[in-house]
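User: Predict the structure for this protein chain, please.
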Amino acid sequence: MSRYILVLQAMRLPFLVLAPICVFLAVAIARSQQVAFDGVNVFLCLLGALAAHIAVNTLNEYQDFKSGLDFKTVRTPFSGGSGLLPTNPEVANQVLLVCIIALLLTVSVGCYFVALHGWQIVPLGLFGLLLVVTYTRWINRNALLCLLAPGIGFGIFIVGGSYFCITGEYNNSMWQLSFIPFLLINNLLLVNQYPDIDADKSVGRNHFPIKYGVKVSTAIYIFFSVSAQLLLAYLVFLGGLPDRALFTFIPMLLSYGVVVGLLRLGKNIAVNPKFLAANVGCSVLTPLVLAISLYL
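Assistant: Here is the predicted structure, written as structure tokens:
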């Protein structure tokens, strides 16, 4: 039993908050559009999203341990893994088992919604599973895929997939809103890769900061941040979002502090963790405030 308590560390529990926020955003969009939905389906969406997030976290921990990367990274509160397996290698099999159980739970929830609503959720579900199982070993070796995968997983698959699962339909308005977390969650993982550039490169990874360097990666961060802000302003201006959604700009402003850190410290940004914390705050609080503004 003590081994499975240790495994909780590999799940990266503090980071699991992102999946419920993305589900909440989908619920808030449906509520703002006055689309009826069932609370049971919301709960199952939340369960499936959390299971998928646990699966990718635990698989990442297991594979980083097996590749030797865990022994080379300098861990921070926001990057470098949990550090569980280098100090407790005997629980590696339990971490892998939790990953498999989480994947099976995700598939089970998906099958329920296929039976409920039909095949339209199948493409998102299959690509979502593919993303989970290929992220650490293969996607991290392709700079563009690695850059976009986090936003696709959370912003597109979880927000879009949850919306369909609770309403039985897709619509253009929902997809437009999903691009805000898409852009910011890409930024979340992008900055967290800066401190691990040298360690990641040593095991064959080729993500965006490795292939294109810190300066280009910082330019991409700025582009994604500004694009999310412009999209929010555009949707409010057109009436697609209520005026109170402008409060969402408040957590978005944290990105400017992150840019200061990136320009000053580059790949050494972890020297001052407040910049990594601001990046997390921007990426997590923005969809949360947006969801609240829609739900009220």
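The chain has a mean pLDDT of 92.
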